[in-house]
Structure formats: C-alpha cells, structure tokens
Amino acid sequence: MKKIVTLLTLAAISVLPMSAEDHVMAATHGSRDTNQKTPEALSLNLEEAQDYAIKQNRSLKNASLAVQEAYAQRWQTIAAMLPQADGTYTYSNYCGYTAEMTMMGNKVNINMPNVGALGVTASVGINAQGVIGALLNNIAIDMKKIALEQSENELRSSVMNSYVSVLALQSISNLLDSSLMNIQHLEQITQNSVDAGAAEQTTADQIRVRVNTLKNNINTQKRNIELATNSLKVLLDVPVETELTLTEDLDEILSPERVLTLLGEDFDVRNNLTYQQVAKSTELAKRNVHMAGWAYGPTLSLAYNYSNQKYYGDGGMRMTPPNTVQVRVAMPLWSSGKRAAGVVEKKIAYEEAKNTLSETTDNLAIQYRQLRFNLSNAYETYINEKENIEVTQRVFNSATEKFKWGAASNLELTNASNDLINAQSTYVQAMLTLITAQSDLEEFLNK
What we know:
By secondary structure, the protein is α+β, with helices and mostly antiparallel strands. Helices cover 66% and strands 15% of the residues. It has eleven helices and eight strands. The strands form three sheets. It has a four-stranded antiparallel β-sheet with strand order 2-5-7-8. The chain has a two-stranded parallel ribbon with strand order 1-6. A hairpin with a 2-residue loop joins β3 (98-103) and β4. The protein starts with a helix and ends with a helix.
C-alpha cells in the first residue's frame, strides 16, 4: 500500500508547477509586526517617512494578506489533485444474533460474532482542468503582487506629496517671518523719524498696517502647516499627539538632474503597473478559454483500498478482499450544449480583455505624454520663478535703502515688499509643483 501511495504522489507532483518551498514561503510572505509601539516623537527624512508609512499602513497589510490568501488558494487547487487518504474503523455488535441459512435443503445456524473493520482508502484524480486551474492560480498570485506594488507606489507618492506640502508651507511661513522682521525694522525707523519730526505719522501707520497684515498671514500659514502635518500623520498611521519632525528641506528633495533624466527617458508601457495588471487579466481570460475547452477532456482516477476485519468470537465469513486497486477513466459524452456555451462565453470574455488591453495601452501612451508635458512645464516655471525671486529681492533691498534715506515713498516700499512676498510664495509653489510632477511621472514609470 505504501509503495502505491508513494508512486501516486510522485506522479501527481511531477505534473504540477508547485513545490513545498513555495507553500512555506507563501505562509510567511509579507507578514508585518502589528504590535509595534508608536514612538512619542519621530524625526524622518522623506525616504524614512515613506518606508515608515509602508510598514504601518493597514491597507497595505490587507494587500499583503491578499497575496498570502492567493498562495493558499493555489495550494488548495493543487492539493485536490494530490493523493487523498482516509482511514476508518467500524465496530459492530450483533447482540448474540444467529443467522439462519438453508444449505442443500438443510437449515444451518450461523453465529454472528462482533466484528471490527479497519479500512484505508488512498485515491488521486487528475484532469487537464485541474492543472490549468493551478496555472490560473499562479496568474492570480501575480495580479495580487502587482496590486500590492501599486498600493505601495501610490502610498509612497502620497507621502511624498504630503511631506513636501508641509515643507512648502513651512518655507512660506519662514519667508513671511523674515519679511515681518524687515518691515518691523522699517516701522521702528519710521517711528523714530516721526518722533524727530522728520516724517509724518501717516507713513508710520501705513507700515504698521502692513505689519499687522503680515502677522495675520503668518497665523494662517501656521494653521495650514498644522493641517498638512496632521494629514501626513494619517498617512504614517501615527497618533495626532506624536511630535513629527521633518529632517529634509525642499532644496534637498528637489533634483533638477533627476528631472532632466526623466524627461530624457523613453516610455516602455510594459514597465507600467496598470498595464501589467490588465495584461495579466488578459492572460487569465485566455487560460479560461483553455480550461473551458478541456471540459471535454477525460479524468483519470486511481484508488487503492485496504480492508481488514477482526471477528471477536466464533464464526464470521471474510467476503471482502484486503487489497483493491482501481483505475478509472471518465469521459464526458453529452451535456446538451452546456460545455460548448461555456467555451463561447470564455472566448467572448477573452476578446473583451484584448480590447481593454489595447485601449489601456493607448490611454497610457497619452497619459505619459501629458505627465511628461506637466513635468517639462513645471521645470520651466521653476527656472523662471527662481530668477524672478532674485530680481525682486534686489528691488526690495534697493527700495529699503532708499526709504531709509528718504529717497523712496512708503507706497514704493510697500509695493516692493508685496512683490517680494508674492515672488517668494510663487517660487515655493513652483518647487512644490515640480516635485509633484516628478513624483507623478516616477510613479507612472514605476521608478
């Protein structure tokens, strides 16, 4: 019996694309520590923040579990084609019953002793549909892995956008603080001139209004920073009480060389995760056509049965052979068109999948052109705004010096201050737009 079971096992494994190592690795794939404590304070650069979010994010944990689930489903499909063994033990007590039988015209009483029956059945059944089903499970695993990678890339992009948003708001707030210090210094100089009778109080009051306006803008920026920081904490999955420190600034994250490299790369649609997902769906639809066609195929079944009976008392007849081997081939003959309709249905689904793949390919090409244009335009805007902020800074410095010596009016100084603040804010926004455009294109290209 052991030899037969071993041979059946080896025969089944030889036709299946699965190893025990795959199953063991699947059981541990993607597991994460869910009991890790969140620290009271975090200091993270951009890459550390992205890695931390991936480690903590619950949606990603579910996506990782979905991969494990797909591995388990594949093993169920494969195990159904491997030898199955069942053991039984039955004890029968006939309560002293004596059977009467007539043999050659004479009645014979036969004692019915208590009996214990041990049975072991080993069987294996293989058909083409089962093998194709295992291959379909492999495709399902690949699709789950692609979905997991997509989720990770999307989360990395979201963390990056949120991270740089906080930095941009902090930069604008710092610029406003610097402008406030300059205006307050001019306010003090003007007030001294008023006290000395060299200037009118109206001029000092106008500058004071400008100071108060800047203070209000700074308070607004602080509220915006708090809101953006809390949004980043949500992505990192940390409590709102956690003290979060960002250790990188926009200049460190921004890489003009990387931008130019991205603009110079050619687009290969096969590297795009959306295309890979749709391509796998198309492959799955094609394999489903094969599976439906093999519904006409035969099923081979092998079975071995061992039986042993033990009589407790006199009498009893051993009618069941102890060893039985069965070979069975089943061939479907007629299903009233059910199988044929199933094949037609899968072929139609396959054609739909091919159309979807073609449409996706075209749409991705258009999307790439748009993302590349966005990045190119953002880079040009960044270069222009970088030059503008240098010019407006020189104009403001000149107006400040002239105002100190009475060669410029309060209106000229206010206009120069407004221009500088607007240029600074626009420059930071241009940096943010450029980083976001770079992130979007990198995510699209699966970089």
